[in-house]
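It is worth pausing here to work through a concrete case rather than discussing structure prediction in the abstract. The textbook approach is simple: state the sequence, then state the predicted structure, then interpret. We follow exactly that order.
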Amino acid sequence: MANYREKLGILSEMITFARADKAIAEPEFYFLLGVSRQLGITRQDFDALLDEGVNTVMPKSQIDRIVQFHRLVLLMNVDQQRQPEEVRKLKDIGLQMGLPPSAIDQVLTVMHQYPDKIVPPEVMMEIFRSHYN
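Step two, the predicted structure:
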């Protein structure tokens, strides 16, 4: 698992992504707060990230990159208002993480088949597994 600094970078990337449409909506804020708790980030550090940010950190392992991409997909859909700039930003982040473009596109297509566009983790993993084989 990532160290505390890496966790801050992961959350910072998510906050930057949430601002892709210029504002963090209330559902996005609470989603980010929940992720910060899950990562063990203090509320003080969470608030500081909202104000100042830190450098994002690329997850080291492929599985951690897929998990981060999954978090970003969930974040994009939490406010039920997916914007074109969010989709472009998500694709860019996925490509920067070295994820296969075809897998990214498949996730963005498949998510419409699930309630609230929440792709189950096992489906997400299967999509990426199929593109790596």
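Step three, interpretation. Residues 4-132 form one domain. The two ends are 25 Å apart (CA to CA).
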